[in-house]
Amino acid sequence: MSNGTTHETDDDITVVHVMRHGEVANPDGILYGRLPGYHLSELGRRMADRVAEHLASRDVTYVVASPLERAQETAEPIAKAHGLDLATDERLIEAGNIFQGKTFGVGDGALRKPGNWKHLINPFRPSWGEPYVDQVVRMMNALSTAKDRARGHEAVVVSHQLPIWIVRSYVERRRLWHDPRKRQCTLASLTSFTYRGDRIVSVGYSEPARDLVPAHLLAGAKPVKGKDKAFGA
After folding, report:
1. Per the CB 3.0–4.6 Å rule, which of 32, 114, 165, 175 could disulfide with 38?
2. Distance (Å) of CA 111 to CA 28, 118, 184, 198
3. Would you write out the chain's pLDDT as a tens digit for each of its 233 residues?
């Protein structure tokens, strides 16, 4: 199918790497959600640089990020390594969450207040934030735009843990509601969608900065007392 400006065929192979941002400076353990002012930590910047090095030899022609600072700062070294301007797409933003700006954990923070319990009644939607289906729609559209911008090449899209995991779950035909502790979407990881033409034909996952990620933040890690609060993603 052609839009009049490019020569598109079903044989076009395009890879869209969806990257989770690096570690954020958040000493108070706040669920920062969409709040402004949360930047990468020094370790987070090292993670971003590591992934930029990892992708330096790849055929990346488009780099785009969520408008939040942590995503922009993660994407900057990747765009720079390829001599590209960094684009911004609002559809890549973190999921909305009613507990934004609060600490959140079992036995402390927002869950200690009975008035907040009503927001936990429906984990399938979920009742505490942006519906999973809405996340799928906006993320699929954002990925499609990135695919079109990089058609026949590769794109890097920097977003946040929950939207990335939800869109991957949708593509891989898993249920959208899930145990957050089992998401395979570590800091600075790459979830790579390969398109043939306009159809996704495979999904890959890699962790170029795995050795920099604190052990308790790796996928499937057991909670560590004092370190298991939800920090936002």
Report:
1. 32
2. 16, 10, 25, 43
3. 344 444 556 679 999 999 999 999 998 888 889 999 999 999 999 999 999 999 999 999 999 999 999 999 999 999 999 999 999 999 999 997 776 675 655 445 545 555 544 445 555 566 557 899 999 999 999 999 999 999 999 999 999 999 999 999 999 999 988 788 889 999 999 999 999 999 999 999 999 999 999 998 886 655 554 444 444 45
End-to-end CA distance of the chain: 37
Do residues 18 and 167 make contact, with C-beta atoms less than 8 angstroms apart? yes
Neighbour tally for 14: CB within 10 Å? 25
Q: Which two tokens stand for residue 124?
A: 């399938």
How much is the pTM? Answer: 0.84
Q: How far apart are CA 123 and CA 37, in angstroms?
A: 29
Q: Domain extents for the chain?
A: 13-96+130-212
> Do the beta carbons of residue 232 and residue 105 sit within 8 Å?
no
- 108 beta partners: 105
The β-bridge relationship of strands 108-109 and 104-105 is antiparallel
Largest Cα–Cα distance of the chain, in whole Å?
Answer: 58
